[in-house]
Amino acid sequence: MVEIYIDADACPVKDEAEQVATRHNLKIYMVCDGGIRPSQNPMVELVVVSQGADAADDWIATHIQKFDICITNDIPLAARCLERGAFAIKANGDAFTEDSIGMALANRELMQDLRESGEITGGPKPFAKSDRSAFLNRLETTVQMAKRQG
After folding, report:
1. How many Å apart are CA 44 and CA 29, to the nearest integer?
2. What pTM was computed for the model?
3. Which class is 3-149 in CATH?
């Protein structure tokens, strides 16, 4: 059975993910280090991990299985999920794939170096309504693909 894992601390699409999962009767794990209210939905399990830089990432990477889906903007976590045969989707609907993850990791490192040197001071563009729509479309198609393969 396909399950959905959400890197939930800063995820702007938790409600949308829950809607899609409910429609497909899939279990969701919302993994965070606290501060998120539990859902009344019995298919949603709130997992509160200890405070720490990668505690939620480590929990997800340890528990996710082949054909499960991870929702995260964290590139190293996405890479770990892909290594386990899972799918990984950003909150804006972009999918991480085996073909794109290497470039994403390299670009992340480059941008981090540029930020540390002061050459770049801005962050990512603000989350938009179109991102929410793209996410819903991507999650729906990914759930369907995962259910066919799993």
Report:
1. 6
2. 0.86
3. alpha beta
